[in-house]
Design a protein that fits this description.
The chain is of the alpha+beta class and 319 residues long. It is built from five helices and 20 strands.
Length: 319
């Protein structure tokens, strides 16, 4: 063998080759980590106590995203009773965490703080303490919700035949399915069968004025309109009062609609603090970003007293 070949074989590796291999390995690791974070696992910070004691303010939770990423999100529905993180359309798309109580096609009813899935003959959730006061339906939907059937994909609905609550739940889903279109509500109050265009609220606590000037924050709030209806009924004592609604799409009245996506009904573990589907209605299942699997660590919020790191919540499995 020639001497030149021996010198080449024993020469140290080129520094540029080593640097290239290191950079290549680092890029591969970053790409894999980004893919895992984007499609499989991610973490979120919990900032409320509405899911207590399952999740607490200050928890850093791990979520499993794979089955909730497109296109699987269009095919696989979340599991009933699973805690999920979702983009909340009611809160301008901000992220929230609640528990799945029911799916499209399910019929639910909440009676005295217990949520039943009627078609499955099972209790979806019951978390009111024995000492809690049960609120009457006329005051709050927190503890009592009349029967409600979540629409299936492909189901059609006649908007002018719905109750007040079901109308606004349907309107919420329609807006979620068509986020780029403009929708508005046209309320009309009838007194003894005649439209009362000049009727105003005068001592109604939430709003004083004409129906056509209600603030935008209340326009799609079914609970606000439910209270408004009660106000008119009591203020026009002895008269037949009816409050009706039309949903306008780009200024044109809608009479019916066929749903194109599946939806879910969500509940908070803490019924008394929770802001959930009892108030804002069902949300599209495609809004779900992932299922909560566990808590990595937990830090007490400022001003709560005690040690900052809550050791008892480290590496908790969430069910």
């Amino acid at each position: 063998m020639a001497p030149g070949n021996d010198q080449t074989a024993s020469a140290p590796p080129d520094g540029r080759v080593i640097a290239y291999r290191i950079v290549k390995f680092a890029v591969l690791v970053l790409v894999c980590a980004a893919a895992v974070k984007l499609l499989v696992l991610d973490t979120v910070s919990v900032r409320t106590d509405q899911m207590a004691p399952t999740l607490a303010d200050g928890d850093r939770a791990v979520i499993f995203k794979l089955t909730h990423a497109w296109p699987l999100s269009e095919l696989v529905l979340p599991l009933r009773n699973s805690p999920v993180v979702f983009d909340n359309p009611t809160l301008s798309g901000s992220t929230s965490c609640l528990r799945v109580a029911a799916l499209s096609g399910d019929s639910i009813v909440i009676s005295r703080g217990v949520c039943y899935v009627v078609n499955k003959n099972r209790v979806a959730r019951s978390s009111l303490p024995d000492t809690a006061d049960i609120l009457p339906p006329a005051f709050s939907p927190r503890d009592s919700v009349p029967p409600y059937r979540l629409p299936r994909r492909g189901a059609s609905v006649a908007l002018d035949s719905l109750s007040l609550r079901d109308f606004f739940f349907a309107a919420s889903l329609i807006r979620q399915e068509n986020p780029r279109e403009h929708f508005s509500i046209r309320p009309v109050v009838y007194v003894d069968g005649r439209p009362a265009d000049t009727l105003r609220t005068r001592d109604f606590l939430l709003y004083k004025g004409r129906l056509d000037s209600v603030p935008a924050k209340y326009e799609f709030d079914w609970f606000f309109w439910n209270r408004m209806q009660d106000y008119f009924v009591h203020s026009q004592e002895g008269k037949d009062v009816t409050l009706t609604f039309s949903l306008l799409r780009g200024g044109t009245r809608m009479y019916g609609y066929t749903f194109s996506k599946s939806c879910i009904f969500l509940l908070a573990d803490d019924w008394q603090k929770g802001f959930d589907s009892r108030y804002f209605g069902p949300v599209l299942s495609s809004c779900v970003k992932g299922r909560v699997m566990g808590v990595l660590w937990s830090v007490a919020p400022p001003g709560s007293g005690g040690p900052r790191l809550r050791m008892g919540r480290l590496f908790r499995i969430i069910r």
